[in-house]
Amino acid sequence: MGSPLGPLMANVFMCHLEEKLTRDGMVPSLYKRYVDDTLARMPSTDAAADFLTTLNGLHPSLKFTMELPADTRKWNKLETRVYRKPTNTGLFLHFHSHVDKRYKVGLLKTMLHLAHALLSTTEAFNEECAKLSSIFCRLDYPIGLMNFTVNMFIQNITTKSEKKIDHGNTIRIVLSFKDQITANAVRRQLRDLSKKIAVTLQPIFVSKKLEQDLKPKEIKPCIVSQQYVVYKFACDLCDADYAVYTARHLHQRIAEHKYSAIGRGRPSSL
């Protein structure tokens, strides 16, 4: 296992070299880097080759390579796709392994969520779904289960997208929460009313705060928790009193006075 400081040190090293390129005005308009993977937009292939030479010439230990886009006609648009290394074996949880079925279904959903989050086009997402189906078929996942999971995922994504569209005809009503049965009944009634008046009525349930039923605690002066204070001590049995300076917290010193007074069998006060 390599040291976790390796990527951090490599990033610091590259940041130092990139600052020099920035001062010299040699950084492209689009330049993004993550550790040793760099994305740059260049006006031509020759300019990209010159920049590659510049990067490799910054230090003898640097050895960057360049990969050109497959379709240069799309240079003004950035698309994302899933890339798998040639060494990828597609090893996932086998369907006949001794694991509960919900974890196997969860694995399918996780891969679909990941593909939907990473891919930028519907075409790429459909291709990735076909690739995932091929991978999980080799792991003996039933085709019906995969098709059902994919269809439900797409349906949920579509429904969430439609719900995000607010045409300004939604009225939100704040109600006190009593119990779940009552809340469900209120939702059904408002849903039926929404269909009749063509306006979306959305209930928002709020719970009663516990502090509304409890009496607020007594606000104590901040000086009780302070250190290095001067206080006045007075005896309840006589008129003697004196001023004392303590370096400890005041509440600690008060406790000591009370303890000593109890030991002597007489009360004292501050």
UniProtKB/TrEMBL annotation:
Pfam families: HTH_animal (PF26215). Residues 1-93 form the Reverse transcriptase domain. InterPro entries: HTH_animal (IPR058912), RT_dom (IPR000477), Znf_C2H2_type (IPR013087). This is Reverse transcriptase domain-containing protein.
